[in-house]
Here is the input.
Amino acid sequence: DAKTTQPPSMDCAEGRAANLPCNHSTISGNEYVYWYRQIHSQGPQYIIHGLKNNETNEMASLIITEDRKSSTLILPHATLRDTAVYYCIVRVADFNKFYFGSGTKLNVKP
Amino acid sequence: ETGVTQTPRHLVMGMTNKKSLKCEQHLGHNAMYWYKQSAKKPLELMFVYSLEERVENNSVPSRFSPECPNSSHLFLHLHTLQPEDSALYLCASSLGTSGRASTDTQYFGPGTRLTVL
Here is the structure.
């Protein structure tokens, strides 16, 4: 199973872009990269996913390197409500298993 | 609101009690999941149900017993738990488990905070 590596914590100023990195050097060709976030022990919230191409939705952008060994989640204008733990997940197709690591604690500061 | 509800939101039980956690999804999904999140630990997948059949049991002790009577409801029956079973129990659902990202995105409920005394 492809594992992911994320920094344990990051700070970001309110209104600035938050760029959250993730390494997944053992990812297989058919494995998707998903991002979720968890705000203070609530249920994880889906953000975005991608395979090869960069993706954007109303919440964030996902940039995946050409070799697919790493990706970056971008929150374009972080707000205090974006303070959360962000999880980068490589989905295993077998029965749709999601393996959550320790994630990155993003602290958005005024 | 994700369309996945869990009850109760908080539960305190003794080691000899029997209780059940309930999950309901209003999304028309066909797959449902139970996860456990202990303090300072990553989420652990416990069970996967697809079309009401259990397709994954991740080496979970028998004191946890899942039940999926239909595609909208999922239960986790608890008996003779240990204090180390105290955790946040999360339910999730997805449209399918087909290997296509368009159907496999999981949506989580708010969780049940369980304390075993």
Summary: Chain B touches chain A at residues 2, 4, 31, 35, 37, 42-43, 45, 48, 50, 55-56, 88, 90, 92, 94, 96-97, 99, 101, 104-111, 113 (CB under 8 Å). The first helix of chain B runs from residue 101 to 104. Chain B has a mean pLDDT of 91. DSSP finds one helix and eleven strands in chain B.
